[in-house]
Amino acid sequence: MDNEGKPFTHWDVAELERVQRVRPNLPVIFWFLLIWGTKISPLTPSQQIQLLKVCYDIAFLLRDSKMMMRVYGTASKVYREMRLFDQALACYSTALKIAKAIGSIELQAACYYDMGSTYNKLHNYNKALDYYKQSLNAYMKTGEEREQAGVYKNIGAIYSSLGDDGQAILNYKNALCIYEKLGEERKQADVYGNIAGLVASSNVSPFFKFKVKMESGYSSKEDLLEFIASMDLQE
Fold first, then answer.
1. Which of 30, 46, 110, 192 is the most exposed place for a label (fewest CB within 10 A)?
2. Which residue ranges make up each domain of the chain?
3. pLDDT-derived band of residue 172, with 50, 70 and 90 as boundaries?
4. What is the dihedral of CA 112, 117, 118, 119, to 10 degrees?
5. What is the pLDDT of residue 204?
6. CA 163 to chain CA centroid, nearest Å
7. What is the CATH topology of the domain spanning 104-234?
């Protein structure tokens, strides 16, 4: 996004006047280009970045912060797909600044989450954990439980990567409780799978007991959830 901040500085008065005449249509043009360029067209990632620069210019001209943030957020994902993680993180950082400036807790939460996911791909688990926790705190403020559950699940995976099985289980359990409340059975199954994989490789006493319970079977998923809730992770 090397043109960010100062588009149109090379334009003369006549060019700017022509743009002003179509200004009412610019929001429609912006969203068409963004959706077509990233969802519909067969553009390569590099071509998508060039198109996003045009979208940025439109957002800048309109002084629309949410449009700018959408451009940076989309560019971040494209850069991540290209494995250009430094550029992705730079875009996420700028998007986060915009989210803070407009006072959107929800958008801040999304930025923190995406930054955590990017650091996770870089195997920088401590950084990933820090951003996931900030995302979780923000989602708690907005009350978005489904998003909270997703963050808890990712935090559990990070703790597992760091070798902290106790914290991994606690966060998986938090995710399970929310998915249970929301009736998200497929999501529950995913978390059960995470827990089973963790338990299978753990030698810690409470996890071994959990593994035995898993292998002996349960009459219902409620029984399994109750057992997880009752586990003494301090043993």
1. 46
2. 12-103, 104-234
3. very high
4. 90
5. 47
6. 23
7. 1.25.40
